[in-house]
Amino acid sequence: MKLKLHENIKRLRKEKNLTQDKLAEILGVTVGAVSRWENENNTPDIVMLTTIASFFDVSVDALLGYDVASKKAKDIVA
Q: pTM of the full predicted structure?
């Protein structure tokens, strides 16, 4: 399963017409951090994930791009 966190952060930021600078300011991180997230060079820590999800009014699952179509362990692993 490939998560789409970096794509979702970038898409959600652009939907709000925010620059990386402005999002960084809002979240209290550096613009470099936002850039690394969007370029898939790094990922936010778990606390920051919840902050980002809350800011964009989405669930952490949605932010990660995770869809639980099946709750069977063998299907989730596959």
A: 0.83
